[in-house]
């Protein structure tokens, strides 16, 4: 119980927690285990974003965390990590990362994931001090910048050819052709170790 020394309780008002600040443009509340949430957004001009992320991590690894990807290059422009995340109260594994970042005009995707335990669905240890904000929240600092950010659908490319979900010990190929010279975008994810590729891809004429 909390009391005022002079007893004038009318001077204190209550509110529904968590208290949301102004100009939130993207919110990914992590409310369950084994979750994966993504929201695409478009930035019309260079802006400054306030990033508030709350998750779980231990040792050198994050277990519940978020990141922001530049949609065209697929490069991560911001990521929650143990090197920047600070103790968020409760269990030692609760982590919180608060910072401001600069984003140029473009298309982006915000993502947050959780593992199989310790989330608002069922805390297996003491929750953080701000459990209602578990997840990723992005806001702009200025009212004038609010119209510069809009929610969109995930950015998609016209696929000319793809080899995805390749299994173990597979060697797959796909053919394509052009009538004239073209500029193409190549995006590949594979496995490598000690300077050598183990799973790899290439283009042949």
Which terms summarize this structure?
205 residues; mainly beta; two-stranded antiparallel ribbon; 12 strands; 36% strand
* Number of E-type strands: 12
Mean pLDDT across every amino acid position? 93
Distance between the termini: 76 Å
Strand content: 35-45%
The portion of residues assigned to helices is: under 10%
How large is the count of helical segments?
Answer: 0
> How many strands, which pairing sense, and closed or not: the largest β-sheet?
10 strands, antiparallel
Structural class: mainly beta
In N-to-C order, the SSE pattern is EEEEEEEEEEEE
Shape: globular
Alpha-carbon Rg, integer: 22 Å
Uncertain ranges: none
How would you describe this structure to a colleague?
A hairpin with a 5-residue loop joins strand 4 and strand 5. By secondary structure, the protein is mostly beta strands. It has strands at 24-29, 36-43, 47-58, 61-70, 76-79, 86-87, 94-103, 106-113, 135-140, 149-152, 192-193, 196-197. The strands form 2 sheets. Strands 1, 2, 3, 4, 5, 6, 7, 8, 9 and 10 form a 10-stranded antiparallel beta sheet that branches. A two-stranded antiparallel sheet has the order 11-12. The radius of gyration is 22 Å and the shape is globular.
Q: Can I get a quick summary?
A:
The chain contains no helices and twelve strands. It has strands at residues 24-29, 36-43, 47-58, 61-70, 76-79, 86-87, 94-103, 106-113, 135-140, 149-152, 192-193, 196-197.
């Amino acid at each position: 119980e909390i009391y005022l020394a002079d007893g004038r309780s009318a001077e204190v008002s209550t509110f529904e927690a968590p208290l949301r600040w102004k100009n939130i443009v993207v919110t990914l509340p992590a409310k369950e285990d084994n979750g994966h949430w993504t929201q695409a957004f478009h930035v019309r001009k260079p802006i400054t974003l306030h990033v508030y992320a709350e998750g779980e991590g231990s040792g050198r690894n994050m277990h519940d965390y978020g990141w922001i990807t530049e949609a065209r290059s697929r490069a991560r422009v911001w990521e929650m990590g143990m090197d920047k995340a600070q103790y968020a109260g409760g269990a030692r594994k609760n982590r919180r990362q608060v910072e401001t970042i600069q984003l140029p005009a473009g298309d982006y995707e915000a993502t947050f994931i959780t593992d199989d335990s310790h989330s608002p669905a069922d805390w297996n240890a003491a929750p953080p001090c701000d459990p209602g904000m578990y997840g990723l929240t992005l806001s702009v600092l200025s009212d004038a910048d609010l119209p510069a950010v809009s929610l969109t659908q995930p950015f998609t490319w016209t696929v000319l050819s793809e080899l995805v979900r390749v299994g173990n010990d597979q060697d797959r190929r796909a053919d394509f052709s052009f009538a004239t010279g073209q500029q193409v975008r190549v995006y590949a994810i594979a496995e490598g170790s000690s300077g050598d590729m183990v799973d790899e891809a290439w283009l042949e004429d």
